[in-house]
Amino acid sequence: MIERKDVEYVALLARLELSEEEAERFTRQLGQVLEHAERIKSLDTSDVEPTSHAIPLKNVMRADEVRPGLSQEEALSGAPHSEGGYFVVPKII
Amino acid sequence: MSEYEAVIGLEIHAELKTLSKMFCCCDASFGGEPNSRTCPVCLGLPGVLPVLNRRAVELATRLALALQCEIAPHSIFHRKNYFYPDMPKNFQISQYDLPLGVGGHLDLEMEEAAVRVGITRVHLEEDTGKTVHVGESGRIHGSEYSLEDFNRAGVPLLEIVTEPDIRTPGHARAFLQELKSIMEHLEISDCKMEEGSLRCDANISLRKRGGTQFGVKAEVKNMNSFRALYRALDYEIKRQNEVLSQGGEVVQETRHWDADANVTTPLRTKEYAFDYRYFPEPDLVPLELERSFIDEVRAGLPELPAERRRRFREDYGLPEHDAALLTSSKAMGDFFESAVEAGADPKAASNWMMGELSAHLNAQSMEIGEVLVAPAQLAEMIALVDGGVISGKIAKAVFEEMLESGRDPGDIVREKGITQISDEEELARLIEEAIRENPASVEDYRKGKEKALGFLVGQVMRKTKGRANPQVVNDLLRKSLES
Questions:
Q1: Residue B320 is inside which H or E element, if any?
Q2: ipTM, 2 decimals?
Q3: Contact yes or no for B18 and A64 at CB 8 A
Q4: Which residue has the higher pLDDT, B44 or B195?
Q5: Residue A17 belongs to a domain
Q6: pTM of the complete model
């Protein structure tokens, strides 16, 4: 069963800030989702191949060729801040 | 001898020499204006689809096979999730529980014994962008803000993880050197540690000698040269030894090698635990390499350093030490073989390369690829010595000049008039002079003092400014004194 501290941990990893009320609500709702998953897990799947992909494709590759991408201006056009061609990011630690 | 022994495992990252990035068509070469080699895929813009670079798979397979790995019949990519601005997607595409190659090994021919280092895995992933911390220190701590360049983000990266089979810093260095040489011979990576295309981290712990239980390990990062790897591990062994002998406990942590201060320091990270929440990358399909593809790559593997070493010993009659040094990088071996092909005596070429040439490279912090002397010019110079045109001593000066200017040895010798005087008439005249000027020595020699002859030879050599063949002078002198 999921506990409130698990929800807080996942929120921390995802950089989400949760209010008291949200933490309570998500604990309850995620609990219900997991309960449902438990029910599915009770089915016998020993004869079923695990699926890592929904589409039956493999070895999709491309040739090693360079094609033009974005210019520096285009690359930086969505950035809130840039400096000398770099993306500016807030201090990390 | 300490009661503890070190247990070391290495994790090596090498950028693959492809033209384009791992999952998009951006230029993957080093350099360029910041953020001039990006596209929506490597910038992690919404709605894009990564597609795997076939060449990167081929190059990775080459190394996996060269390291005797099993190629996985089924291999997939995962997303490694973390928040750090060097990856705009907030995840790195990597391989997790199903890597491309597993279970290989690399044998090191150490002087004391052969050492086998197990290869746990070889997998493909993408490189991250480059972060510049702005602020006084230039390090992450205390910086005001950081700058990101995503030109390297998405460049194909190979990760090689060893078993904890390494016991000494010297073996760790030898392993990295051999692996680098292998990757150079396979032509899969530039392996330039100073440009970051080859990087090495180490896990290191100590245990009671002869024990089987592993101790608590530290992970050491930021070792940017072979020397740094050696010294960082050497330092860690001493540090952990001290902690343990005083009854303390080693803390499991990541430590940063500071090459200026010669110490490792704990890397402060945020308080949360690293939890990458790996899950299969839904935008990429599984990789199931066909037997025919693997066989083709295997058939195309070139001669590797170990084989080349053996050939240098057997075909060229080189001692083990020479063969090892000349195969420590592909470029070194290629230079040697070109010189021999141009007619140089193998041992003479090897001596010049291990002596003067290596000294020059070290002094100038140069790679052999940057040296101005061509292999054929070295061969030509050796021929001048063998033909008696210049003495060995003068050859050193000529070679120095060649290293500085890249000019042909023949031109240098002609211009400076430093060919050996082999004209016997000219020599006879100088010998006459020497005899006239040193009657006492002549007298001594005639009384049977052999040493006096040496003095007279020296006098003649001085008159020729070292340009005579001492053996010839010796013979001529003896003849005139005894006539």
A1: helix B320-326
A2: 0.85
A3: yes
A4: B44
A5: yes
A6: 0.84
